[in-house]
Amino acid sequence: MNAELCNMCMVEDGEGRVLVQERLPKPTNPWCGLTFPGGHLEHGESLVESTIREMYEETGLTVSNLKFCGIVQWFNPTTELQYIVFLFKTNTYTGTLKDSAEGKVRWMSLDEMRAGNLAPYMDKYLEVFLNDDLPQAYGVVGTGLSLCF
Fold first, then answer.
1. Mean per-residue pLDDT over the chain, rounded
2. Which helix (H) or strand (E) holds 49?
3. H helices then E strands: how many in the chain?
């Protein structure tokens, strides 16, 4: 089985807002819209190390005290690739917020985020982030994403 391991992190500011990234369309990644920052594991990294690195690269913030929230798993039947996204959240961070090549970042309430231009299936990702009884979402590329209770 071939698998690509990724991470995504929801940062809460303690005032009812979350750090949102507006991903811009790129030829190498057409997935765009409002989401949380994240990325891929590099060779030799742990999941937590990769999340801390990606958050710093994409937001300028150094995060800590990560809490595991669940997994979003995609299967691509054409390439037979499993794409597994490990979801974390935290309210512990330091640094100065900055945009990156991945997109612009800003604080907003979850209601504002949901009312905005969400990245595809981000509504399902949010369910896993926010529901302790929902450990996973699973999807097949081209057919959609289902929540797994």
1. 93
2. helix 47-59
3. 3, 11
Residues in the chain, how many?
149
Long-range residue pairs from 46-53, CB within 8 A, at least 24 positions apart, any chain: 47/5, 47/7, 47/86, 48/88, 50/5, 50/7, 51/7, 51/9, 51/86, 51/88
**pTM metric for this prediction:** 0.94
- pLDDT bin (cut points 50, 70, 90) of residue 27 is confident
What's the CATH number where 19 sits? 3.90.79.10
Question: Which domain does 14 fall in, by range?
Answer: 2-148
Round to whole Å and give the CA distance between 15 and 87. 21
Q: How many domains does the chain have?
A: 1
